[in-house]
Amino acid sequence: MKISDTLSGKKTDFKPIGKVVTMYVCGVTPYDDSHLGHAMSAIIFDVVRRYLRFRGYQVKVVQNITDVDDKIINRANRLGVTAAEIAGKYAQSYKEEMEALNVSPVDINPKATEEIPTMLEVIKGLIAKGFAYAANGSVYYRVKNKTDYGKLSRRKFDTMMVGASVEPGEEKEDPLDFVLWKAAKPGEPSWESPWGKGRPGWHIECSAMSTKYLGEQIDIHGGGTDLVFPHHENEIAQTESYTGKVPFVKYWMHNGALQLGAEKMSKSLGNLVTIRDFLTKHTPDSFRIFVLGSYYRSPLTYTEEAVAAAQSGADRLVRVVNKEVAAGKKKALEPKPYYDRFIEAMDDDFNTPQAIAALFDLARDINRAEEEGMNAGKARETLKELGGILGLTFEGKAEATIDIEPLKKLASAINQKAKTAGVSAGAVADDIETIMASLISMRKELRKAKQFNLADEIRDGLSAIGIALEDTAQGTVWKRK
Ligand SMILES: [Zn+2]
Questions:
Q1: Distance (Å) from CA 336 to ligand 1 centroid
Q2: pTM for the model
């Protein structure tokens, strides 16, 4: 197996440090509903651990919950509730959403507020070694003492100085220094410390928790690309200067951002789709197929069309997996070539686009084989097994709500009328995707030809079958109602 590492920039053979693969993934700051960007990262690292386990590794995964933070405190103050109430509520809904997305639970899920003593230990150790200093009730990390600081994000001290600043109230020796412990401000949650009351900085919690639960050096550290600087750079600085062991992490895995339009999906920009909203319209498998259809390190752009295509793909797999076919002693479809392709792809730095392609080819060939009277029972089992490694559930509503026969009937009727109206007719195929594509393009043609009644007849007819059409900036998409 090969894995790419952000620090070295190389793809190398995966050789874990010890018997158990240790993996740390940065978690959420629960202050609002989680969006699909969070879901994307969760799904990618879920697939990483599922695959490692499939490959025979024992894997221990830790993911933190940053349950004390400016965003949580600000929201709590606005709503007149405690920070703990906000964090508790959204941590719980995140957990439920992960379950709904079939993300397997991590082994240890520590909360920042429950690990204050661990963090204080690390901060004290850093001060003792000259890597940190207290000033005015706060503690800062002394960046220039870590001579290789900037190695993950490939930044030099002088270029980092340009963006660095000292905020009012901060007493840093150097603008590059970052906070490990923040002196308490009125109206904020705080804890006792050797430097007075205060609360931890964000970066220190990941160093403290990974060291405590996984050891001084770990195999895999995951997170979004946006965490490379400063968060992961600071984690490296803290952990390596505290333990004296280099490297802190053997394989840094960063997932690309999920974009909506030209920007990263984020709460601050307001361009987001919440997980909850997504799941009212689509199945969990469809989002997984959408995410895994792209290499994990690349940015991915969310569009209604891409999601509709992923949903059609998910529905197709559900139909193939759940089809009841009487087994006979007929010639069998041999799944091994597809299985091998899948493993080869996943072994190559989790090349999920290739792995997914192997699954879809297998599904297509199962259909073909059965049409030709072959036995595809073993192939169907393989499809289920490989899909399971990617976390697919093969649960879907497609079969239950969309019946192909009325859809074919509607398409034929519309075809007849379109011909009479002088608009060229579409295809009446045996699969939902093809018929829908044809009906959508015919509706567009009819509207161009000002045959609005007929165009509306398509929409109303589909509605009666349980399909909704939605006109978006990128074109018309369809959904199960
Ligand atoms: Zn972190």
A1: 40
A2: 0.82
